[in-house]
Amino acid sequence: MKKIDMHVHTMTTRMGHWKRATPEELFEIYEKIGVDKAVILPSVQQNEEAMDIVERYPDRFYWFCNIDPRMGNNRPDTDLSYFLEYYKSKGAKGVGEVTCNLYFDDPFVDNLFYHCEKTGMPLLFHIGPQIGNCYGLVDDLGLPRLEKMLAKYPGLTVIGHSQPFWSEIGTNVNESNRNSYVKGKVEPGKTVELFRKYSNLYGDLSPSAGSGYNAMARDPEFGYAFLEEFSDRIMYGSDICAPDNTLKLSKWLDEAVDNKKISRETYEKVCRKNALRILEGK
């Protein structure tokens, strides 16, 4: 089965040290790992460039728009639906990757979540470990602020990503290792609890940064069971940023189904069907 990559960054031209893979370079990588379509998440470029790439390659890409919650009037009550509806009309399927360095429950971020729910736009976030000198929405150990928002906006599809999100799949996480790749056997932690408690929480397994792949592969038997339990809400992603990124997740998933560690149904959902449900309502 050809996969849909729910998390990729691409640019048509190089921009300083931001060596993003071009669409054409992505196609070469995708040929090797069995991906036929991907979701572009604007990062250092404008939404319009992502839109232009999709227009050039409509059979290969979807795109999310990137909305900073401080845009517009720089007020926590700005009508962000105005911007979201505009980009939605241009084909955007969601919002992300949200990387503004604010707390999850900051009034500006709360306003973004509110308008994403209102407009039916799924939101994909990156978590950063602190305010300053990093990027991503910020939460404390144990993810209490994320949980607050999941409970407050039950109609919003929220897609989790990054080290501080996936490191909490186990209990052996602390302030010093939460932004890295925690190793060892998994005793189910806060991320598992949140998946069990909130049906609006989804997961992006992007392995380029290592976080999603590490969460599954550090304790394979746990990883297989986790995919089976949450098979309707986990999605394949690559987080390819540069042409030379090393990718392991695609092969890991292929081997898992070939060796009957996960069911064919779960494999198909994670690799493609869950993404199609979000992107096309199928």
Please, could you describe this protein's structure?
The mean pLDDT is 94. The strands form three sheets. Strands 4-5-8-9-10 form a five-stranded parallel β-sheet. A three-stranded parallel β-sheet has the order 1-2-3. It is built from eleven helices and ten strands. It has 282 residues and is of the alpha/beta class. It is globular and about 50 Å long. The protein has one domain: Metal-dependent hydrolases (TIM Barrel, Alpha-Beta Barrel), CATH 3.20.20.
Helix and strand arrangement:
Elements: E1 3-8, H1 23-33, E2 35-40, H2 47-56, E3 61-63, H3 81-89, E4 95-98, H4 107-119, E5 123-125, E6 127-128, E7 137-138, H5 144-152, E8 158-160, H6 163-166, H7 190-197, E9 201-204, H8 211-217, H9 220-229, E10 234-235, H10 249-258, H11 264-280
Parallel strand pairs: 1-2, 2-3, 4-5, 5-8, 6-7, 8-9, 9-10
